[in-house]
Write a structure and sequence with these properties.
- The protein is α+β, with helices and mostly antiparallel strands.
- It is 18% helix and 30% strand.
- The chain is built from 8 helices and 28 strands.
- The strands form 8 sheets. A 6-stranded mixed beta sheet has the order 16-13-17-21-20-18, with helices on both faces. Strands 19, 22, 24, 25, 26 and 28 form a 6-stranded mixed beta sheet that branches.
- The longest helix has 20 residues.
- The protein is elongated.
- 38% of the residues are buried.
- Bound molecules: ligand LQZAQKY5 and molybdate ion.
- The site of molybdate ion has 8 residues, from loops.
Length: 418
Amino acid sequence: MWTVDEHLADVLSGVTVLPAIDLQLLDAQGCRLDEDVVATGDLPPFDNSSMDGYAVRTADTAGATGEYPSVLAVVGDIAAGAGDLPKVGPGQAARIMTGAPMPPGAEAVAPVEWTDGGTGTGHPAEAMTAPVADEEVRVLRPVPAGAHIRRRGSDIATGDRLLDAGTLLGPTQLGLLAAVGRGSVRVRPRPRVVVLSTGSELVQPGEPVGPGQICDSNSFTLTAAARDAGAIAYRVGGVPDDAAVLRAVLEDQLGRADLIVTSGGVSVGAYDVVKEALQGGEGSVDFRKLRMQPGKPQGFGMIGGPAGVPLLALPGNPVSSYISFELFVRPVIRTMLGAPDVHRPVVRAVCPVELRSPAGRRQFLRGRYTPDGRVEPVGGEGSHLVGALARANCLITVPEEVTALAAGTEVDVVLLTA
Ligand SMILES: Nc1nc2c(c(=O)[nH]1)N[C@H]1C(S)=C(S)[C@@H](COP(=O)(O)OP(=O)(O)OC[C@H]3O[C@@H](n4cnc5c(N)ncnc54)[C@H](O)[C@@H]3O)O[C@H]1N2
Ligand code: MOO
């Protein structure tokens, strides 16, 4: 029999981060950068206005008041995106919109509310209106030099290091890459994980359930868990207990997989098809028993030749397959991703009830952990208890050598939601 740690070490021994690829920005969401990103230009790329108003020369507005406004000739109208800019000379102003480039000669922007907006009333305007030919504008207060100008390079200067290799790309990092003109980036890709459940008793949820049949739930749990871990997961539900069919399905799936996960068919039953299909032959999947509960029977190996794809064959009981995923498959996905946190966090917590565990097996009980450092088991030990599993947010670990823990003992807790 293998210990949990020996099996995990064996599973991880050949796994490395996947080779980097270039992806379009939105395809790179959730991936980690595989390059340092350095700015090749300034941002903003040009001096521009942060307000809708008038670009002016400061000397022209010195001493301006509501009673004695500066009256300036409007020589142009600059919208955001304008390429042709009027020159602003003494006694002149240009209408300008937020984000539009500053015209030559102007030193500041008077927001429209500091002017009469060209209405000729001398009263503060509330908003820009349509431009009037040969317009004059009255500026009602002095405009300090540089007011309401967003300077070229004030956000990012050419040569700035923007993002380090290893950075996880979320919305704001992708926005930054777009802002500096990157259409694609070099990232560590998401592993492609094929999830396959076996069992002739399985029907797809939503289909009629006949005598002796049950709904395939493992392929949903495992596919969602693989996505949660950062993978692109493909669900192949309900392969019947027929070794030839299973081999054909695996052959078919190999081309799109960095990792294959199966559930069911690894025990000692007469129809344990995964074992039958993958034991011996050209594949080198090894079936073994682990000192743990649940999750005793496990398979692991490479299929599709020596440089093939790793395959983890998990037990069929729903709780067993999910816990096996968390302990063994998730770390493979996280390693392939190049993530710094390969394993789920483990914390200590006080359990107010007595716990029992079989000798020689590390037990993983479903539990509810609260941030005050307490944990309680939910449901019983049975590996079929999906109701309790869905209420759990952690696994309470009872070590191999321990058969009973008194109420109030501190235990290790694997957090599933962090
Ligand atoms: N004589 C023995 N019997 C069993 C042993 C043993 O050591 N000796 N080990 C038990 C343990 S522990 C486990 S775990 C299971 C593992 O069995 P398999 O991996 O072969 O899984 P199956 O027999 O195919 O299914 C077990 C159980 O889970 C249900 N199942 C399977 N797939 C799904 C699915 N996709 N969605 C929902 N439920 C699923 C299946 O109907 C069975 O009830 O073996 C024990 N037996
Ligand atoms: O190992 Mo089984 O996984 O105990 O139910």
